[in-house]
Amino acid sequence: MAKKNSTANKLDWEYAPSLEGTDHIQLKEKYDLYIGGKFVKPSSGKYFATTNPATGEKLADVAYGDESDVDKAVKAARKAYTEVWSKLSGKERGKYIYRIARIMQERARELAVIETLDAGKVIRESRDVDVPLACNHFFYYAGWADKLEYAFPNRKIESLGVAGQIIPWNFPILMAAWKIAPALAAGNTVVLKPAETTPLTALKLAEIFHDAGLPPGVVNIVTGYGDTGAAIVNHADVDKIAFTGSTGVGKIIQKAIAGTNKKATLELGGKSANIIMDDAPIDQAVEGIINGIFFNQGHVCCAGSRLFVQENVADEVIKKLKRRMDTLIVGNPLDKNTDVGAINSKEQLATIQKYIKLGISEGATMHQSRAKIPANGYYCAPTIFTDVAQSSTIVQEEIFGPVLTIQTFRTVDEVIQKANNTPFGLAAGVWSDKGSRVFNLTSKLKAGVVWANTYNKFDPTSPFGGYKESGYGREGGLHGLGAYVKLK
Ligand code: ADP
Hints:
CATH superfamily of the largest domain: Aldehyde Dehydrogenase, Chain A, domain 1
Bound molecules: adenosine-5'-diphosphate
């Protein structure tokens, strides 16, 4: 129920809290590594805490896997590959993957709540987007498992072997699904490392794999920090690396695997352009801008973090955008009314604040949402910057937070040139009423995904990936399956 706060400006609405319950979730105090179908203690005996960024409270202790644990996991994955998984028919593999998808659906609410607690992302998103999409990835690739010869007609198809997969904290369960589902469908086994700040849903997935009766060693989950990831990358018996994360670490991985036989897909940073033409449906476009950068706290590699507005509608767009920003609710991610949740970690909040200060010191004009910010936990108000130049640091570098830069343009050629003037090329958005304008722009923007009159839409059937420093290889769709097979 909404009630208007009569003493304040008419944009201030107060909503009764609508908290998602947490009593139905089951979290252990301590999580071990999932290797060879069992939870096993880390060789070092070390554990680290994973906390709720919305409150700072500890959720659980998680095992810190080192090189020798990674070695055990790779050995378990190799054994499962040679003795079981590569010998199973596609139809049998498919049955396991379907079973995993169905158990995930049954436990969807629990997975969504744990994701929100561990990552700080709003429950509306983990419940309505991340978890259903993760299930859909398993369903989709389960369907391909016995149809590989139709996916790649007239080719001899071989699986790769053991896949080492390293994922980030912004979409923990979804990234795990993007990577595990196609790997299993194509007949590979997996060693996966979740991010250090968001390991819990991957460990829940381990329980689900167990309940689904997945043969031991087919998927192994090794938790830890960057050195754990590096041990996977450098292990001699890993055939493929699939990595999503920062461009910096992507470059380290590229160097590490140069000259080896390892295949790789790298999905790295972004600084995506969201372009509003003067004939765009302005109100929808404003919602698209908000969705592109402020929902999910800007923790999206393909976030529409650079806004380009055609000059003759810029005043109207910016005015409406500011008004809408003021109505966003920033707060407890478990509350169903919340639009903008918690920043994933103290370190990430410090990075975002550093960029905000830099924007101001470089002469840009800042406007922040008037939304109330909770006193505890890690939060950042939605922020926009005008009066920025192409060369401004906040226009050039990925911030990974709810911070948007706004530039104007007059002609189509100008905006194409500006939008492409970045080291990245992950995604872009175009808003126009005119189909020919949309097609012209989408064909000239150097980005792996271009959305038209929408933003941040995902589907298991459609490939995702970048150009330039945003990485290479595609995940999702047939392309995503192709990344896990050898074709002869
Ligand atoms: P972000 O900035 O999104 O945290 P990172 O690239 O630092 O991105 O992290 C993404 C994932 O890569 C995490 O699981 C992290 O632990 C892992 N990682 C960090 N450093 C390395 C490394 N040198 N080699 C392999 N994995 C790494």
